[in-house]
Write a structure and sequence with these properties.
- It is a single chain.
- With 394 residues, the chain is an alpha/beta fold.
- It has three domains: 116 residues, HUPs (Rossmann fold, 3-Layer(aba) Sandwich); 84 residues, no CATH class; 143 residues, Rossmann fold (3-Layer(aba) Sandwich).
- It contains 16 helices and twelve strands.
- Strands 5-4-3-6-7 form a five-stranded parallel sheet. Strands 10-9-8-11-12 form a five-stranded parallel sheet.
- Helix 14 links the parallel strand 11 and strand 12.
- The radius of gyration is 24 Å and the shape is globular.
- The two termini are 31 Å apart.
- It comes from Polyplax serrata (Common mouse louse).
- Pathway: Lipid metabolism; Phospholipid metabolism; phosphatidylethanolamine biosynthesis; phosphatidylethanolamine from ethanolamine: step 2/3.
- Belongs to the cytidylyltransferase family.
- One of its GO terms (molecular function) is ethanolamine-phosphate cytidylyltransferase activity.
Length: 394
């Protein structure tokens, strides 16, 4: 059987007292990895899956389903296909994106793009008929699994938005803990709780941050650009903004405000994602060099001097005064280092929430159907494992 993993090194031969490198070793081809999916409301769970996939090879190709395929097999996506294509292209571990790929991954697809194997998380994705969408590549032994990121899913994020309450995150001593119960249960039949989509609490670690961060530091002479905000539910509007900001310099630092600070100036149920989730989401994108966790709302002289900031940018959104009524960008303006950017994109987190609310019943129905399909597949898997155990007499 063909070996579709990373090629093994071929030992060097010795001829006439000299080492002779095998010609096949010199012609070693890069391992091409295939991933595909909906990548709706791209979050750090998606990014972490792609990071792990890239580590299994040399070149990562990501196929993204179009809206028609997603509606057929899952229900309406929150982001349009154009938005999803753009978001995936900007993730730092992605080398190439293929638009409008089939929902079921085939050997023809892998061969067409010269991919050695396909990679997916350790959950099960099914078609509208309940069939494992990776069954063909699994059967051909051209499939590898990576660990799914616990505590985050598009389904859970949709649930949080549907809650319309600021109680989806705790304040005080449990400031950054997302409350999974309400968002998980929203619109779901109690009998429809699958083992993968159901939200378990996200537990952030320094290792996760290190995996997402490239440990970059500005080189001598680099122009450092600083932007700050909530960057909640990181979307194409954010992406266009940071791309424009990055183009003004060489090293982009993103300051992320704490949850209570975001709630003060955004109100309502914001932020949808807690600080730790937002940190990983922002770090996943190739234009970002560094993130300041819990950045001050007002940009201080101390911050600018510490990070040697040359330019401070803000978009066209309203600048809300600090609690003392002062302009949070007063210092960089006084220093002549403030630049207002027009990203050319009017997408906001509020508009995404509005999409969800306007289609509330459709998304609740989608969440419930997804859970039921997963549960059915999982129960079938468990039943099969039990039958094998009994047959083996163990």
């Amino acid at each position: 059987m063909a070996d579709y993993g990373r090629p093994n090194n071929i030992g060097n031969g010795v001829k006439n007292g000299f080492k002779e490198v095998d010609s096949l070793q010199n012609e070693k081809k890069p391992v091409r990895v295939w991933c595909d999916g909906c990548y709706d409301m791209v979050h750090f769970g998606h990014a972490n899956s792609l990071r792990q996939a890239k580590a299994l090879g040399d070149y990562l190709i990501v196929g993204v389903h179009n809206d028609e395929e997603i509606i057929k097999h899952k229900g309406p996506p929150v982001f349009t296909q154009k938005e999803r294509y753009k978001m995936v292209r900007a993730i730092k571990w992605v080398d190439e994106v293929v638009e409008g790929v089939p929902y079921v991954t085939t050997l023809d697809t892998l061969d067409k793009y010269n991919c050695n194997f396909c990679v997916h998380g350790d959950d099960i994705t099914t078609t509208a008929d309940g069939v494992d969408s990776y069954h063909l590549v699994k059967k051909a032994n051209r499939y590898k699994e990576v660990k799914r990121t616990a505590g985050i899913s598009t389904t859970d994020l949709v649930g949080r938005m549907l809650l319309l309450t600021r109680q989806h995150f705790y304040q005080g001593s449990k400031e950054y803990q997302v409350c999974p119960e309400n968002s998980f249960n929203l619109g779901l039949d109690p009998a429809a709780r699958g083992p993968w989509t159901g939200c378990s609490q996200f537990l952030p670690t320094t290792q996760q941050i290190n995996q997402f961060s490239e440990g970059k530091v500005p080189k001598p002479g680099d122009k450092v650009v600083y932007v700050a905000g909530a960057f909640d539910l990181f979307h194409v509007g954010h992406l266009d903004f940071i791309e424009k900001a990055r183009a003004l310099g060489d090293f982009l630092i993103v300051g992320l405000h704490t949850d209570p600070v975001v709630n003060l100036y955004k109100g309502s149920n914001y932020p949808i994602m807690n600080l730790h989730e937002r940190v990983l989401s922002v770090l996943a994108f190739k234009f970002v060099s560094e993130v300041v966790i819990g950045a001050p709302y007002s940009v201080t002289r101390n911050l600018m001097e510490h990070f040697k900031v040359d330019i401070v940018c803000h978009g066209n959104t309203q600048i809300v005064p600090d609690v003392n009524g002062s302009d949070p960008y007063a210092i960089p303006k006084q220093m002549g280092k403030f630049v207002q950017i027009d990203s050319g994109n009017d997408m906001t987190t509020e508009k995404i929430v509005k999409r969800i609310i306007l289609n509330r019943l459709e998304y609740e129905k989608r969440n419930e159907a997804k859970q039921k399909k997963e549960l059915k597949v999982y129960e079938s898997y468990v039943k099969g494992r039990k039958e094998i155990t009994v047959h083996d007499g163990k």
